UniProtKB/TrEMBL annotation:
GO terms for biological process: negative regulation of DNA-templated transcription. One of its GO terms (molecular function) is DNA binding. Belongs to the BlaI transcriptional regulatory family. It comes from the Bacteria. Pfam families: Penicillinase_R. Keywords: DNA-binding, Transcription, Transcription regulation. Signal peptide: none annotated. InterPro entries: BlaI_family (IPR005650), Cu_transp_CopY/TcrY (IPR014071), WH-like_DNA-bd_sf (IPR036388), WH_DNA-bd_sf (IPR036390). This is Transcriptional repressor CopY.
């Protein structure tokens, strides 16, 4: 699991999705698929691969030619990290409404919905009536409307 604060850009996600789908990929494969998906230049893809290695999402086998790139973490771990990081940066008071809006806009499987319902039902028994705003230190909050 990623423990640092390095998040991926949308472009980096595109590259990683190819590598996760293939389990491992050469730069030629990544360039090929990115050209099909986004018509990106090889230099753009190579720059993104280098950035992903520096951020700790990607490694390679060290071969001088036809280097093979492998993900350091799973797609699910990266998704969890990114969502947790994004939600952690939001006002705690507004997270529920934002999640509700996003959930209403995305396609979910029946299994996903059942799992979410189960989680929410369990959380309901211990949920507070309201969630306080955490945008400012408590001693500074006098009035905050979202």
């Amino acid at each position: 699991m990623i423990t640092h604060e390095q998040t991926m850009t949308t472009s980096e996600w595109e590259v990683m999705r190819i590598i996760w789908t293939l389990n491992e990929a050469t730069s030629k494969q990544i360039i090929h698929f990115m050209r099909l998906k986004k018509n990106w230049a090889p230099s753009t893809v190579k720059t993104l691969i280098t950035r992903l290695q520096k951020k700790g999402y990607l490694t390679d086998n060290g071969a001088p030619r036809d280097r093979l790139y492998l993900p350091i973490i799973s797609e699910q771990e990266a998704m969890h990290h990114t969502l947790a990081h994004t939600i952690g940066a939001m006002c705690a008071m507004c997270v529920g409404q934002s999640l509700a809006e996003v959930l209403s806009d995305i396609t979910l499987s029946r299994d996903d919905i059942t799992q979410l319902q189960s989680i929410l039902q369990k959380k309901l028994t211990q949920a507070p009536t309201t969630v306080a705003c955490d945008c400012l230190p408590k001693e500074r909050i006098t009035h905050h409307v979202h």
